[in-house]
Amino acid sequence: MKYNQIKMALYATFLTNYLGYKLKKANSSKEKKELRLLYAKTLLGKLKLNIEIINKDKIPKDGKYLLVSNHRSVIDPLIVEIALENSNIFGNWIAKKELYNSFFFGLFVRNGGTILLDRENSKMGTFFSDIKECTKVGESIFIFPEGTRNKTDADLGEFKDGSKIIAVKNRLNILPVYIHNQANEKLMDSLKDGKLHRTIEIEIGDIIDYKDKSMPLVDSYKKQFNLN
User: Fold this and answer.
1) Is the whole-model pTM more than 0.70?
2) SS3 at position 219
3) For residue 9, what is the domain's CATH number?
4) 220-225: long-range pairs with CB below 8 Å, 24+
5) Tell me: the pLDDT tens digits for 79-111?
6) Percent of the chain having pLDDT more than 70?
7) What domain range includes position 187?
8) Which side of the chain, N or C, has fewer Cβ within a 10 Å radius?
């Protein structure tokens, strides 16, 4: 591992746990949103990664939604936070059990506004009731429908069935966003050589009505962003 990578790993570990502790003391979703945005801006700034938002005018100012995004890199949640900076939308991320127990991410994830998805638990009642409680108070749900990072050459992996179920059960219209596929490549380049500024694009799509049954969610998503 090169010097710049070691330096960034140590810095990111400190920042993640420092703000994870501050999130533990946060008393409102507004305060959590501010701390998550601070984290995103600070870490991406340190990496010299700039975020360009395509179709920024399509971002709702208020409301609750199921935000769906493709998943290419570990910084994808940070990119989404930057995109929603000027919106009042606060979303709870669907997070895997591995992240909850992670030394690196655990404190931040547990306190930052997340809903635990335990795939080893055959009973999903708690998961869906946690979502219900968040939407009752006007909060959104943020999810990567592919379920895990797409490490293939395909533009997009298949969506898990749960995304549309969450939208329908909670009457959440769907806000699609697409992080252009070079995100992970630019992150790796930044870790290898942190001297240059690099830009990652995130594109905002049109809101999809949760009652729309004209096509599967994954097909509607692909159509909006011209994906194969």
Assistant:
1) yes
2) helix
3) 3.40.1130.10
4) 220/176, 221/68, 221/145, 221/156, 221/159, 221/176, 221/178, 222/155, 222/156, 224/176, 224/178, 225/176, 225/178
5) 999 999 999 999 999 998 888 888 888 999 999
6) 99
7) 3-225
8) C
